[in-house]
């Protein structure tokens, strides 16, 4: 009996069926595949499962823009010209700003910031006792598990320099070896991810071009002398149809679309004023200048400012604000 107990029976190994490496289809098969429709988190701009790299100059406003965009997304509110159909669950991992700065921004955005923010989870790495590194397998798995546990739709990692330990950013092999496993895990779980990064002196994504291999979309954040932001789409593999959005953010954190300048004819201005303010003109006074004079006056009345024409000529914020209005 003792011998029988100690007798080791060899395990029966069932040979695994080898999956062929190559399995082509002809074009008639491809054309008949019924792919599911794209699940847009932001219509024609950010899709479920996308991996987005957003680069920009230091201090240009990357954290401000993405925090604001995610705040709108978590509440299902349109962001400038970007249409957001429904609220999404957001996880913002911040290794750039202090929690106090983010708190101030949140208070500026809403006079009741404790209401309606259950969909926005915020993690501040600067105040955490644990250093989070994207490049360790253990913490990659922990991050993905947390996203699944919290039913996260979109993850923002701010920023790559602070969250990854890479010795040489110009070595493709090191970057691919350390970060591609995380990208693969997030993509498999359909967790949309935004990785915030810096640009080099040429205004391109910093470091090795290997980082562009695995991403779906590359955006460059720009800001011009009139304080207008542009999320310039440099590279995309997804079926996006949205133009690069242009917008500005006021000191009160109000986001507005920045429209391209256009030549307005007297008829256009007169029609716009008539439709919005029921303005009536004397028959002999329908010039473009008279329409603009009325427009300045209406702007002064609506926003409580004086000398709107002079103000706009000296302050780009008011110029952009008036154009969008």
Description:
The structure is a single chain. The chain is of the alpha/beta class. It has 2 domains: 40-257, Rossmann fold (3-Layer(aba) Sandwich), CATH 3.40.50; 266-324, no CATH class. The protein has helices at 2-6, 27-31, 62-75, 99-109, 137-149, 160-163, 172-188, 266-277, 288-303, 308-314, 316-324, and strands at residues 40-42, 46-47, 51-56, 90-94, 120-124, 154-158, 192-198, 217-223, 229-236, 246-249, 255-257. The chain has a 9-stranded mixed beta sheet, with helices on both faces. Strands 1-2 form a two-stranded antiparallel sheet. Helix 4 (99-109) links the parallel strand 4 and strand 5. Helix 8 (266-277) runs parallel beside helix 9 (288-303). The protein is elongated. The protein starts with a helix and ends with a helix.
Task: Provide the fold topology.
Elements: H1 2-6, H2 27-31, E1 40-42, E2 46-47, E3 51-56, H3 62-75, E4 90-94, H4 99-109, E5 120-124, H5 137-149, E6 154-158, H6 160-163, H7 172-188, E7 192-198, E8 217-223, E9 229-236, E10 246-249, E11 255-257, H8 266-277, H9 288-303, H10 308-314, H11 316-324
Parallel strand pairs: 3-7, 3-8, 4-5, 4-6, 6-7
Antiparallel strand pairs: 1-2, 8-9, 9-10, 10-11
